[in-house]
Amino acid sequence: MPQLRWNSPFVQNALAGLVLGLTAGIYVALSTLGAGGGPAFFSGLISSPLLNRFGPAICSSVGAAGYIIYTGSLWYFAKTGRLGFPVAAAVIMGLGCSIIQAAVGYVIMSYPEERHKGRYIMISQMLSFLCSMFSSIVPLAIDTNNLSASGVPPSVYITFIVLMALATILALFILPPEKVRRDDGSAIAIVPRASFLSNMKGLIKALMDVKLLLLVPGMLATEIHLVYLGSTNSYHNDARVRCLNGFVALLVALPINFFLSWMLDHTQWTRRVRGVIATSFIAVFLIGAYIAEICRTYKWNRHIAGPNMDWNDPGYAGVLILYIINWVACSLVLNLVMWFLGTLSNDPEKCAHYSGLTRALLGLGQGIIFGLDAADIPYKDEAGALLALYSTAMIGMLLSALFIVPETKYFEEEHVIIPKYVQE
């Protein structure tokens, strides 16, 4: 059982996960309701130098503020129909989203011991899922008996903005790695002060690491499902079904997340075996779900109004089951990507670059799918594009597990302090 100290890696990871849940987690809930935007590509690239320069606390707090502005702009658009504010806010949120998620990824990858990296990813994800569940309950409670509800009520926006404001305050209590202490009393790493230019050089060096190439499709695919499922959920279902789908999927994701973390941290298997088994487990459900999606949406026509399905309608059970499998499998791709990246380094500076790159490619992937969705291509074609990207991502991670993943990075990185149990 980890020690519950403010400067323990466990508590700091939980705090970072809670901040992410109160911002990005709520954004996920908004996406399931049919509202949403996408993080920016270039802000992801510059987030790692900012993170190494200013630390996770300031970056997380500033990033959380971007979510407040964006959520307020969605409320404004719902009231007025004017696009100026939402467009500007989407840019701001894109910057903030990349920075806060890079900061949380930095904590996830560099704060835990190697044997606990799957657990730390799981804790962060589960806190995000729990916040998303709560965010799904709010509109569900409002819309349960309102069959005509077609948008997001103002009370939902107000609740979300208050929670995001809380996140901006909590983020300020995230400690930098040099102030964090493991349970054995040792520090995590010695983090040298570097200029912004030096950090940019470090970023370029990290980007040129060929070991990352196999993980690029996975980074692109980590959150593209939010676009597709948000769009199809909005097209096919009424408001209360959209809320229920999101809530149930998040609920099911909790135990599956725990099981995946057990596989990733099961030390009786080598790291490469863990990577192969965990990736294969997700791939089976992921690829199967999108083959089913292509079949389901084959005759859908975006230019004809959807059925506006309610949970009392025939056939809803099958729709819900497919949504759950799809959402859960897709959401756990991020767990795999973060674990694979975490096997490549324990150095906070390098992990910041990896996390920033992940957020940049995440934004690029979402931007591509947003573009396809905005072009009103048939849903079956959009599902086919996701199937192709997810299949490529799974193959890349399997190859990485087989040929790239090292058994340990301890004693190979000069800034990392080795845990006492490893030295004994």
Automatic annotation (TrEMBL):
Entry-linked InterPro entries: Ion_channel_UNC-93, MFS_trans_sf, UNC-93-like_regulator
Keyword terms, alphabetized: Membrane, Transmembrane, Transmembrane helix
Subcellular location: Membrane
Species in which this protein is naturally found: Scytalidium lignicola
Major place of residence: membrane
A GO term from the CC aspect: membrane
Listed name of the protein: MFS general substrate transporter
Transmembrane segments: 15-42, 54-77, 83-108, 120-142, 154-175, 210-231, 243-264, 276-295, 316-341, 384-405
Topological relation to the membrane, as annotated: Multi-pass membrane protein
A Pfam short name: UNC-93
